[in-house]
Amino acid sequence: MTAHFLQKYLPENSLPYLQQWLGQHPIQILISRERSSKLGDYRRMPDHSHQITINSTLPPELFFFVLTHEMAHFFAFQKFGYRIRPHGREWKEEFAKMLMDSLSVYSKDLQPVILQFSKSPKASFAASTGLVKYFHTDNGEEGNFVETLKKGTIFCYRQENYKMETKLKKNYLCTRLSTGKKYVFKPLAKVKKLS
């Protein structure tokens, strides 16, 4: 498969890496509309071909990162068979190697974040504080990360107002003002500070 149709989604200098990785492999790459539940995915199809989908709305460096993540699934399964865990040791090793090989594709300020991430790749982009902070993505809203708010701060999230109550072990307990119900927020949820 040719990688040229992806060029408009990719950072500069990334195409040679994709061409090398794709080679003559039967991988179909589809560009998807934005999905809130995932940035990309990999599937082995019933006819034994392979399909990767990537959200079209991602910034180029994140698009390339997610595509690398999904291609690492393909290479891990090719090398070790389909009985391995999808985000197990074999996938982590493949992903880390691919990230290190293509490190020069990323901007200078993102390279240390990618280096740190490659030491122990996570299954989810959202599990990497460095990556989430770099790309400022969570729910598409502009504003502050929940972890930066002080106790008592009122903020808006998805058109509802909340009050910051307290920090739990990793997350934050907040109260929805309209109902008085308590909700747990992840530290890197993006919210709009109101007071």
Automatic annotation (TrEMBL):
The SprT-like domain sits at: 37-97
Taxonomic superkingdom: Bacteria
One GO-annotated biological process of the protein: response to stress
Listed InterPro entries: SprT-like_domain
Q: What is this protein called?
A: Transcription elongation protein SprT
Q: Which organism is it from?
A: Chryseobacterium lacus
